[in-house]
UniProtKB/TrEMBL annotation:
Membrane-spanning parts: 20-42, 164-190, 197-219, 279-297, 332-355
Superkingdom of the source species: Bacteria
Topology versus the membrane: Multi-pass membrane protein
Family: Belongs to the binding-protein-dependent transport system permease family.
Name this protein carries in UniProt: ABC transporter permease
Domain ABC transmembrane type-1: 162-352
Organism of provenance: Winogradskyella immobilis
Lineage start: Bacteria, Pseudomonadati, Bacteroidota, Flavobacteriia, Flavobacteriales
Cellular compartments annotated: Cell membrane
Keyword Transmembrane belongs to the record: yes
UniProt KW keywords: Cell membrane, Membrane, Transmembrane, Transmembrane helix, Transport
Length: 363
């Protein structure tokens, strides 16, 4: 068996023995699957889980209510895959009701009202329902995490909000790796004036506070979903570049690199085929840390109102919308998304520590 494979197997065995590393990997995989198939798991599968019911806003977890769903005459032209990954275009109308009865050819219902008040009584013709089967359109709706201040299902918003927090890690880390490896490789391999120039760019970028730089880039690119991903990625390449540069400086004079030069290999091949594969360990560890940092930065941007824009769900934006409820007797509206952010960030930090220990050749 080749030596690199045996080292890989050894690192894998060491990783499997780390309980918190394996546990964190399981948490990350579960959250990843949940974010990809969020609309499949969400009770409210409408786009962005944006079905509002103001009469039942800010209800506690476990709240139950009868929901009258009025069918729409508008036909939905949407594929099954589109519904699973992007949510359904909801054309029906949902009305929370306290009670209902049948009078003549009409369904008479009393709308749900807050604080024990009696809601307005309204009626609708039974012809509105297919075959006058009104019972199929009245269901008992349970809100596991309660409702937010707009009466939206909080569990659905949490599930769909996981998409931004999870995927920003992948996209931001990918952008930072591409730029950081390129800049760090050139600076470390060639040295001299090229190294001095790149280090000057790195030091200037490093001196600007990360959040301030992200805000500036976000404002330049505009507010939105993808702009935040790009902005966070463009601010995280500096750490990668410094690590790559330092690693290449330490290994570029080693015998296998000298032998590659003697054989006439190009600089590109020496860097990509010989040097980079041997410095993957610190890159993997720093990527795990950058995942966590990207999630926190995005949450901060959403809290400031320049991240993902309404009605798109985001854990940071959910904290922003409900942080004042902490002193209004309903702290869970801010604590639930906060706990989700903490859990995901902690999972990435723990898996980073586990990878560091597994890839440490001295241990």
């Amino acid at each position: 068996m080749p030596n690199n494979n045996s080292l890989t197997q050894l690192a894998l065995q060491k990783f499997k023995k780390n309980f918190w590393g394996v546990f964190s990997l399981g948490v990350i995989v579960c959250i990843g699957l949940m974010s990809v198939f969020a609309y499949f798991f969400a009770p409210d599968a409408s786009k962005n889980a944006n079905q509002m019911h103001l009469s039942i806003h800010s209800k506690k977890p476990g709240f139950d209510v009868k929901m009258l769903v009025l069918p729409s005459s508008i036909e939905e032209d949407q594929s099954v895959l589109n519904k699973i990954f992007f949510g359904s275009v909801n054309t029906s109308t949902e009305i929370p009701v306290q009670s209902y009865k049948i009078e003549d050819e009409f369904l008479v219902y009393t709308e749900y009202a807050l604080d024990g008040l009696i809601g307005q009584e309204k009626k609708i013709a039974l012809d509105r329902f297919p075959n006058k089967d009104y019972k199929s359109f009245i269901e008992n709706r349970n809100f596991v995490f309660g409702t937010d201040k707009y009466g939206r299902d909080y569990l659905s918003r949490i599930l769909i909000g996981s998409r931004i927090s999870f995927f920003i890690g992948f996209i931001a880390v990918f952008i930072s790796l591409v730029i950081g490896i390129f800049m760090g490789s050139i600076a470390g391999y060639y040295g001299g004036k090229i190294d001095a120039f790149i280090m000057w760019i790195i030091n200037i970028t490093w001196s600007i506070p990360t959040l301030l730089l992200v805000i500036a880039i976000t404002l330049a690119l505009g507010k939105g979903f993808w702009q935040v991903f790009i902005a966070v990625g463009l601010t995280m390449w500096v750490e990668v570049a410094r690590v790559v540069r330092g690693q290449i400086i330490s290994v570029k004079e080693m015998q296998y690199v000298t032998a590659a030069r003697a054989l006439g290999f190009t600089d590109f091949r020496i860097i990509t085929k010989h040097i980079l594969p041997n410095i993957l360990a610190p890159l993997i560890v720093i990527s795990a840390a950058n995942f966590a940092a990207a999630i926190l930065i995005e949450s901060g941007l959403s809290f400031l109102g320049i991240g993902a824009q309404p009605p798109m769900a985001s854990w940071g934006a959910m904290i922003k919308d409900h942080y004042n409820y902490i002193i209004l007797g309903k702290p869970y509206l801010a604590l639930i998304p906060g706990f989700c952010i903490m859990l995901l960030v902690m999972a990435f930090m723990l898996i980073g520590n586990a990878l560091r220990d597994a890839l440490d050749v001295k241990s």
